[in-house]
Every structure is written in C-alpha cells, then in structure tokens.
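Students often ask what a holo structure prediction actually looks like on paper. The answer is less mysterious than it sounds. You provide the chain, you provide the ligand, and the output is a string of discrete structure tokens encoding the 3D arrangement of the protein together with magnesium ion.
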Amino acid sequence: MNLVSATPASIDRAAALLRDGAVVAFPTETVYGLGANALDAVAVARIFEIKARPTFDPLIVHVIDDAMLGRVAAEVPDLARALMARFWPGPLTLVLRKAPEVPELVTSGLPTVAVRMPAHPLARALIERAGVPLAAPSANPFGYLSPTRAEHVAHMLGERVDLILDGGATEYGVESTIVLLEPVPALLRHGAIPVEEIEAVAGPLARELPDEAKPLAPGRLPQHYAPRTPIRLTEPSEVPIAERADAGLLAFRAPAPGYRATRVLSERGDLREAAANLFRHLHELDAIGVTRIDAQPVPLEGVGIAIMDRLRRATHA
Ligand code: TXA
Ligand code: MG
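The corresponding structure tokens follow.
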C-alpha cells in the first residue's frame, strides 16, 4: 500500500524517494500535488507518464525559500517581489524567466517557469527535507477532477505513484491563482486568491494576451477539471422534477427535491467553504453512478470566480 499518513518518518522516507527520482503525492493548501525533483528531467518525465499529461503543458515548481527560488528563476522583477512579500507562502503562482538548470520538460520549452511557495506545513517539510524544488501538477489524470484528499489520489492514480502522503483535506480546494509578469502583468488562471486581492498590489492585470505571448496552458482549455459523468450548469428550479430522478445535484446552499443524490457546497453560502468542498463533492457524485450532474451556479465574487471557472470548464462538452 503506497498511501501513508504524514509523520516525520514518512516525510523523511518521501524526501529520500524524491532525491532518488521517485514521484510522491503530497498535500498543499490548494489541492494534492504529484511531485518530483524539478531539476531531474527523468523524474519529471514520470509525472507526465503517470498523469497521461501532454508535454506541451508546463508544470508548477514549488520552492520553500529565496535560495531555492534562485535556483529555478533567472530574474525576479520588482513587481514579483511585491507579490511574493504579500502572498508567499500561499496559493499564488508567478511566471518568471527560467534559470538554465530547470529542464525544458518542466517548462514545455518555454523561456519561463511557473513558481510558487506553498504554505502547507507538510509540503514545506517535504521540500525542505528533500532539499530540491519540486515540480508538481495536481495529482489527477489529465483533464479530470483535482484531488483534495489523499484518497482521491489513491483512487485515481493508485499504485502508479511511489508514495502518497496523507495530510487530510486541503484548505482551499481550488488551485493557485497564476500571474504572468512579462511582457505585461496578466492573470493566467483564476484560483484560490481572488484576483481583486492581487490587483490591489499589482494594479490591473490583463485578462487576454496577444497571441504570440500566449503560453499554452491547459488549465485554460475549454474542457478541463471534468468528472466522467456528464455535467451541466443549471438552476435546479429550471429542471423538471421528472428529469431529476437519475441525476445528481451539486447545490450551492440548499438541496432541491427529487434528485437521486445531492451535495451542498456551503449551507452558509460561504464561497471559501464552497471551494474547499467543490472537488470532493464532484468526486462523490461522479462515483455514485448518476446519469448527469446538475451544478448550480455560485455568485461571481471572490473565490466564487475560480469555482465558476472550474465548473464552466467541467461542463464544456
Ligand atoms: O495549486 C496549484 O497550483 C497546484 C498545487 C499542486 O500546487 N498545482 C497545479 O498544477 O494546479 P497544474 O499542473 O494543474 O497547473 C499548471 C499550470 C499549467 O497548466 C499552466 O496553466 C501553468 O500552470 N503554467 C505552468 N508553467 C507555465 C509557464 N511557464 N507559463 C505559463 N503558464 C504556466
Ligand atoms: Mg491540474
């Protein structure tokens, strides 16, 4: 069994495995990551293999301090420093000019590298003990729902991963917000930190880039983060009762009658709680065997924007 609870001993074992080129799943404050030594191209190649991830999709590199950042990024502009001072450690990923030591596979041949400094104590302990930056995408098969619990990883990737560190449920439940700094500051992915908080530090962020500056980024593909069951965005009140019996409902605050299974994101209407529950509820509804999932829209504010971004991509047939 490759699923172990995170203890000082299992973290040491995981760190030793990582130094040897293994692939280890670990919790971060956003979702579980599938990590390998970012400076070891062969180890990184295994991540792509395990996830069946296309190699045009670059990875996020996780660091714990400035020294490690210096190994992966060639240059840190002032605006990046200001964002780091405010949001690191935490769920903000910055796209910086890459250092030569970072393998091309990590960045899909781009001249830039995406970097973040996670806040989760287990992620931090693991990186510190491994002593190397960790390249880590979300620990799910490409295009599928992200994992917010160790069991999700075990269920989706199983024994293909060398070790899965169980650190319980993740706090945010949606991935980091991604910001590009050059040629113009731009938002590449809505995520755990609402964009308005970032703009309060960085000023307005571009939402659309000129084509030649556009990185290939599947988190931006119209279809991503999807369950296997067909899913659509709809107010349950617009769904005839007769069409509910075989379907599942992902509700925002309250259930609606007649559905075969229902999961409520947040009874209090708290968007952060809703984000933390999003993927877990979708994993559960996907496993029940309903013929369709009706997802109720959530308010487009704060982290609700990242939730709606994930739901729109999940529902895009
Ligand atoms: O919260 C998170 O960010 C999680 C945890 C594990 O840290 N990781 C995560 O990784 O969401 P992943 O692989 O699912 O998302 C990586 C995305 C790519 O799809 C792309 O959108 C963007 O990061 N990316 C990576 N490198 C980039 C680069 N050089 N330029 C632009 N975008 C990049
Ligand atoms: Mg992902």
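Residues 231-314 form a domain with the Rossmann fold fold (CATH 3.40.50.11030).
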